User: Which sequence fits this backbone?
């Protein structure tokens, strides 16, 4: 039997010529597009799902972490993340928590979906929803000429002078042959759900007590209330261990397996706590499984855990953060957290073991930085990577992957794309000018 079929060559229509094309419409991608549009660029924004926001909206992940330094004293993050928080405040759609290492802003993710639509509309960006990036054509110098997208209209091309890959999985970067690896112990994906009737239940203990009966793995996750006292919580209780969701077969498996976990949760409550049945209600399932980690790409600089934990300063720093190094045990059951102040805790099946990764008494950093060099490569003259695909070792990645930090990489990508319009290769953008532009747009540069 033949293992391939011949697909006839074809001419693909160019549906749009723009200055910047952003692939992936999480806040990272939207913020890249909006920053560039505010500089006057003609921008296309391509998202495969039915809404913008990525894991925050399609995945129901409702927590943005700290925008202050590690002592909760100085503002270290501003820009579009805080603009969005202000917009959500006006809609009673955000809770602000003080001095809380687990959450600073708790968002109503449905309202976030609506606000992202507004932001995109106001900015003049040309949006494409339900549109999948699926290939690229290249210039002689190795730059991207155009990207191919598919949607209800079929296959078409968008031509641009600069491209931002904010797909998380680095679908364009992969086609640009940027070297990447997929770690054997990936941080696993999770299906989140909004559920009523579990508010006062220690779900972790209950789940693990009954999990064998429902054939689900031992696990440990979290849940969170949503703003304005709504009678539901967001539950991110389980993980699909070992799944690399940048692989189509595993992605399909993970979606169904993650939902099977939610079904098991609901059924174990129905069976073992029948008195809750009158109030128990599954309100919402994430429309796409929440992805923590897939391909890891190499850029001009790989950010390391040591640089993060010691708060190394970079002349081309484009983002600040404080979120702890957070590594999910790949086999499940908990995390290791390493804090900037030197503490370390291993949490495994409700057991906490505290230690220190650095001796008491040494100076500690109050925040860390991400250099622009972790987003670009000299062999990809018009590509910028943004979001969770940027170059970081596993420990650094465990810290910087959170949204309030990734959002800043999007903003930097948008500003850098504007600076690259004169033909400057993206990796040669002047870092001082980039930082100035970021400040002008409300970002905090330290
Ligand atoms: C269960 C869970 C809990 C988490 N908890 C927190 C938390 O509490 N706080 C926090 O800040 N972070 C949390 N994270 C991490 C955080 O959500 C992610 O690291 C972050 O969303 C990464 O942002 P991103 O923009 O790089 O990627 P994503 O949010 O994954 O966005 C990528 C976007 O690209 C689109 N896309 C992908 N491929 C294509 C394509 N080929 N064509 C077109 N579009 C494409 C996707 O649909 C998506 O919209 C959590 C993650 C998970 C899974």
Assistant:
């Amino acid at each position: 039997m033949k293992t391939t079929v011949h697909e006839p060559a074809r001419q693909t229509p160019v549906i749009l010529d723009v200055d910047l094309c952003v692939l992936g419409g999480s806040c990272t991608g939207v913020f890249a597009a909006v920053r560039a549009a505010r500089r006057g660029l003609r921008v296309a924004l391509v998202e495969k799902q039915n809404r913008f926001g990525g894991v925050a909206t399609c995945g129901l992940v409702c927590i943005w972490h700290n925008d202050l330094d590690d002592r909760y004293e100085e503002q270290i993050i501003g820009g579009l993340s805080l603009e969005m928080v202000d917009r959500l405040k006006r809609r009673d759609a955000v809770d602000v928590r003080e001095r809380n290492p687990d959450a600073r802003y708790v968002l109503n993710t449905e309202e976030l979906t609506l606000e992202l639509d507004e932001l995109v509309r106001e900015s003049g960006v040309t949006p494409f929803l339900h549109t999948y990036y699926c290939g690229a054509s290249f210039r002689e110098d190795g730059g991207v000429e155009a990207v191919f997208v598919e949607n209800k209209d079929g296959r078409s091309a968008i031509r641009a002078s600069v491209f931002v890959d904010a797909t998380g999985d680095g679908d364009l970067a992969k086609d640009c042959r940027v070297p990447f690896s997929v770690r054997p112990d990936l941080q696993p994906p999770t299906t989140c759900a909004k559920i009523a009737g579990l508010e006062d239940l220690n779900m972790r203990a209950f789940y693990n007590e009954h999990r064998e009966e429902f054939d689900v793995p031992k696990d440990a996750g979290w849940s969170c209330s949503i703003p304005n006292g709504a009678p539901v919580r967001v539950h991110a209780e389980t993980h699909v261990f070992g799944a690399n969701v940048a692989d189509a077969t595993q992605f399909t498996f993970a979606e169904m397996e993650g939902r099977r976990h939610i079904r098991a949760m609901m059924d174990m409550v129905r069976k073992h706590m029948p008195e809750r049945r009158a109030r128990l209600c599954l309100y919402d399932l994430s429309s796409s499984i929440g992805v923590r980690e897939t391909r890891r790409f190499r850029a001009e600089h790989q950010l390391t855990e040591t640089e993060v934990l010691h708060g190394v300063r970079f002349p081309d720093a484009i983002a600040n953060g404080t979120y702890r190094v957070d590594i999910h045990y790949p086999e499940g059951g908990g995390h290791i957290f390493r804090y900037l102040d030197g503490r370390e805790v291993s949490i495994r099946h409700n057991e906490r073991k505290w230690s220190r990764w650095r001796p008491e008494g040494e100076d500690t950093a109050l925040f860390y930085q991400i250099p622009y060099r972790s987003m670009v490569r000299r062999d990809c003259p018009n590509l910028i990577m943004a979001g969770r695909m940027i170059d970081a070792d596993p420990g650094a990645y465990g810290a910087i992957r959170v949204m309030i930090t990734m959002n800043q990489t999007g903003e930097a990508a948008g500003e850098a794309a504007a600076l690259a319009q004169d033909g400057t290769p993206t990796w040669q953008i002047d870092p001082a000018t980039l930082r100035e532009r970021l400040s002008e747009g409300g970002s905090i540069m330290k």
The mean pLDDT is 96. The first strand starts at residue 14 and ends at 23.
